[in-house]
Amino acid sequence: MRALLAVLLGLLLIGPAAASTRIKDVAALKGVRDNQLVGYGLVTGLQGTGDTLRNTQFTEQSLQSMLDRMGVNVRDARLRTRNVAAVMVTADLPPYIGVGSRIDVTVTSLGDASSLRGGTLLMTPLAGGDGQIYAAAQGPMAASGFSVRGEAETLTQGVATAGRIPNGALIEREVPGSFRELPELILELKNPDFKTATLITDAINEYALQRFRRRVAVPRDQRSVVLQKPQNIIPTRFVAEIGDLLINPDTPARVVVDQRTGTVVIGRNVQISTVAVTHGNLTVRVTETPEVSQPNGPVINNQTIVGNGNAAAAGGNPGVATVVVPRTQINADEAGGKVAILRGSDLQTLVRGLNQVGLKPSDIIAILQAVKTAGALQAELVVQ
What is the per-residue pLDDT across 323-345, written as a single tens digit (0 to 9) for each? Predict the structure, then answer.
C-alpha cells in the first residue's frame, strides 16, 4: 500500500507539462459512439466439457434445429454428445465502420459446460438494439482459463467458460448516418466539471484565434462544449486538430475506498483539516479444547466396570457413561494505538501523516470514514 501511494505521489509531483492531457482523452464527440451487438450460438469441438443435453434442453433444441437445416433428421433420436455448448456472443460495433470489416467478439457459456477451451463458434448472427443483424461471428475461440477435474480434486484457473475471438465477426450492415451528417459538433466531457469545460473552451479558442482568426468554442454546461466549424476546413481535420490540444483538467476532491480489496485512492485535491486520530485494534480469541472424561464405574467382585449404558447385565448397577467436558479459553488483546495529528494541506502531507501512524489499508479506510463523519475530510468519500 505504501509503495502504491508513493508511486501515485511521484506521478502527481512531476512538472505541470507532464500532467497535461489531450482534449481527445478527456472528451468525446457527441454522436460518435459504439453500438452493442448480441447473439446466441453454439460452440462445438469441446473435449467432453460441453453442456449436458439432459439438463440444458435449449442446447439440445438448438443442436436439433441446426442439424435439421443441414438435412440431418435427429428429432426422434436421443442426443448424448458432450462436445457442444450454448453460448452468448457479444461485441461492440465501432462508429462509421464499413461492410466487410472485422471486429472482436466475446463468447460466454449459457449452460452447464465446464470449459470452452478448444471450441469453435459456429456462424452466429449479431443483432443490435433495433433487432437488425449487423454482423456474423464465427471462428476458433481463445480461452485463457482451464478446469481439470479428478475423482477427489478439481483444479481451476481463470474463467474457462468465457473466451474471445479476435477479428471473429464480419460486418454485414452499416449503421445509418455519417460523420458529415452530424447537426452540430459537441464535445462531451467524460468527467463533467465546470472548470474543465472552461479550460477546454479557452484552449480551443486560443488555438482558433491563431488558426482561423475567430472563436469557435462555447461552453454549454459542465458536460458539453459546442464547436462551430470554420468554413475553410473539413470537419475531420478540424476535430483532429482540436483533439491534440493540451489542457490540465481539474479533478474534484474525492477519496475512493474498496473494502473488499483494501484499495484506497486519494485524489490530488483532497485536504484534511487539523484533527487528532488514534486507532487501536481489539482482538478477541475464543479457543475450544474439549476433553473426554471417563469416570470409574462401580466395583463388582473386585472388578471396575466401565459403564456404557448396559451395566445392568453386570450386576444390575447402572453404568457411568463417558462424557465430553468442554474447555473454553478466551483471550482479549487490545493493541495500543498511537495518537497522531493529521493535517493534509496537499496529497504529500496527507500521505506522510498516514504513513507515520503505520496503518494497514483496512485501518486507513476506517480512519477516513471516521474523519469524514467528524467533518474534517474536505472531499467526497466514495465507498465501493
Answer: 777 776 666 555 555 555 555 55
